Structure formats: C-alpha cells, structure tokens
Amino acid sequence: MNPFDYNHPARQDIFAGRSSELEWVKQSFEKALYGQPSHLFLYGPRRMGKTSFLWHIKHLFQDFDGNPFLILIVSVGDCRNLSDLTKKIIETLYLEVQSQKNVVGKVVEFLRNNFRGIKIGEVGIEWNREESMFDEPRQFTRVLVQLWKKLAEAFKGLAIIVDETDPIIKDKRFAGEFIFSLKTFIEEIAEKGICELKFIISALPELYEVIPEYNQHLLRIFDIKAIEQFDEDAARILLRNGLKLASKKKFGLWSDEKRFTEDFFSACFRISDGIPYHLQLIYHRAFELDDDGKLTEEDFDRAVFGHQKKEGVLDILHHVSFGPLYQRAKSASSRSERLLTVLSEVGGELTLDDLQRHFPGVSRETLSSNMASLRSNDFLTPSKGQGIYTVSSKLCRCWIDRRVRKIPDKDICVGT
Question: How many CB atoms are located within 10 Å of the residue 111 CB?
C-alpha cells in the first residue's frame, strides 16, 4: 500500500513546502482582522498541488490566532452558470455549519424566507427548479452579504475558496458572469466596510486570459500569485513525510527507511521536474516495481515506463491527461497530430514563429489556437517571455517521444 493517495488532496501529515504561499495567505487573513479587504487569486498548471494547498489553508486558518473563520471549499464541478455556482456556495455553507446549532437555525430560516419551495434536509438542499435565482451579480452579492450577517456572531470571517474552475474557462459567458459578479461583490462590500468576507480563487492560468478585457478587473480586485513546482528541498520533505507515515502505518516496503537514500530523493525530483503529482507517482511506482531491496536506475525506468503487467507513470498520465488530447488531436486534423511531432523535435523553447516555419501554409490565428489547446492540456507551459513556451515536463516529453515518434522506451532517458 502506498502512503500517498495521489488522486486526492495531500493528507495534512504529508503536506510539504509552499512556505511563501502560506505567508501570502496569512497576511490576507491578518488584513481581515484589521479591517482591510483582501481577496486572493492563485493560479498554476494542473497537477501542481493547488487543491492540496487549498485544503491546507482550511486546516491552518479556520482557527487563526484564536479567531474562528468559516472556510468553504467550493468546487465549480458541473456548474454551468453563476446561478449554479451560487447555489453550490450556499449548499456548502449549510453543510459546513450543520453541526453548529447556534448558527444552522439562522441559516435555515434565512433560506426558507428567501427561496420559495426550497427543501432542506440533513444531506443537503433541494432547490425549486421553476424559480429563477441569482441571475445577475447584485443578487449574488445580496445573498452572500445577508448570509454573512447570520454568521457574524459565531465567526470572525468567512472565506469562500472556489476550486476546479475549468467549466468557467471553457465558457466565455460563464467567465464573464463570474468575473463581473466578483468585481461587483468586492466593490460593494468594500463600500459597506465589510472586510470579514473574502474570496480565494484557484484556477488554471487561462482563467484570466479567457476574456482579456476582464484582466484589469482581476488585477484591481485580487492579489494574484502563481503556484509553481517544488524545489528539491520541498520535494525531499514531501517524500520524507510520506516515509514517516509509511513507517508509522507499517506500509510494507515503504516502512523500511533504510531503503531511501539521498540518490533516491534526487532521482525522484529530477524525473518529476518538481511537479507534486508526478513526484508522488514516481515514488509509488519505483517501490511497487522494486523487488530486490535496492533502488537502481533500472527501477526508475521501470517505474516510468511500466513493467510486465504493471502500468508505469506514463501509462497513468496517458489515461488522465496526455492520452485524451492525443486522441482528439488525431481525430481533429493531421495538423494537430503534426504539432505534437514538432514538440518532440523542439530542444528548448517554442514560439509561434517556430510553428509558422513548420506550417508555412497555415494562418497565424489558427496556429495560435492550436498552441492554446496544447497549453490548456498541459503540453506547453509559459517560459520567460510573452509568447514563449516549453514542453511542460520531462515526463510529457517522454510521452510525446513514445507516442508520436515511436522511440523505444529503452532509448528514452528521463533522468536528464
């Protein structure tokens, strides 16, 4: 059994790193205590540990210096519009305070007085489908402010964390509603002097690029920060935390700390590029496939590429990320598939001009759209300058080589 569950947020006893990001959040909560409005926008590519970080925020700050904060983590999930998202925020709030008798009664009373035909039970809320609700930003603000008034006696502040925002990115209308509603909400509560309410938004970088005219709104109302790869020290701490848990829980092979050397930690970090999800996959597979008690270079190759009937890291990533894009690329057009071939030939950075040299007959606008698709699916990541990209990780490059160029696994080196 693996001490990491890499399909769910990191356990609190394993969580590592993110010291600068945590200080950033701490300062925001301190501002709330001193009557200064503060709202946060955290962005980063998939698999970078955003959701784990958000749950760590909830764990650390729900009792901040003796001040109780109600912290809600709301996944956009299957929400299709602002009304769906508002309902989800209310449902999450209700479930969060359900066990607090001095608060839940006030929330239930407010909901029944304001929403016709609503049904409230122990497992959640059933809304009246015929009633139109939250279809404009001021309703969004009004409901959240009034709900806060019902909570103010029990909590010092309310932080609404919005996660899994992909549906917003995919729908420009939803994105416009969402950003404009946040702008309206933040401006109105600032005018009313309500500093105890805060939003923390977690998103892919594309969210504030979907509608360029809203960029300035986001910059004006949010403190924005990128979440990036682990450095080697943070990666080592994460793996060591996993080891401590494994030893404590007697997780088979992982219980023997003597098997873990500095070379092991370095290899995990080097292959993963410091991407937390990749780091945990490699750690898991290396020991699951190891059968002689000594970790070697071959063990890491087997961990990445698979062994006999066991899936390797690339197989897992094929299922969850790379594969779906590749299949869409194959069915969409030969150009999309050739784009991946170009990526496999790029030694370093890639720009739109590079693509035009490979596709002289294709318009710049079309190539830009193809490039955006590759970026949104984690094949490309922004580099140091505007319009400059690199392949997002060593594992991504290995996947491209194996799937597109048909290079045998033994000829692909992931350790460099």
Answer: 19
Decide if pLDDT at 364 tops 60: yes
Beta bridge mates, 40: 200, 223
Final residue of a domain: which of 200, 226, 252?
Answer: 226
Looking at the predicted structure, is the pLDDT value of residue 152 above 80? yes
Place 30 in a pLDDT band, splitting at 50, 70 and 90.
Answer: very high
Of the listed ranges 20-24, 267-271, 315-319, the least confidently predicted one is 315-319
Q: Which of 193, 179, 142 shows the shortest CA–CA distance to 41?
A: 179
Residue 331 buriedness (CB in 10 A; 0-12 / 13-18 / 19+): exposed
For residue 71, what are the β-bridge partners? Answer: 159
Residue 63's CATH number? 3.40.50.300
Query: For 334-350, what is each residue's pLDDT tens digit?
Result: 555 677 777 777 667 78
**Are 84 and 175 part of one and the same domain?**
yes
**Of 71, 92, 83, which is closest to residue 178 (Cα–Cα)?**
83
> In the chain, how many domains are there?
3
| This prediction's pTM | 0.84
DSSP E strands: which ranges in 154-291?
Answer: 157-163, 197-203, 223-226
Residues forming beta bridges with residue 126, ordered by sequence position = 119
What range does the domain containing 265 cover?
232-306
Same domain, 293 and 351: no
Average pLDDT over residues 312-318: 79
Alpha helix positions (H), 259-363: 262-272, 276-289, 297-305, 313-317, 323-332, 334-345, 352-358
Residue from 113, 77, 69, 117 nearest 93 by CA? 69
Q: Where a domain ends, among 273, 306, 339?
A: 306
Query: Residues 106, 169: one domain?
Result: yes
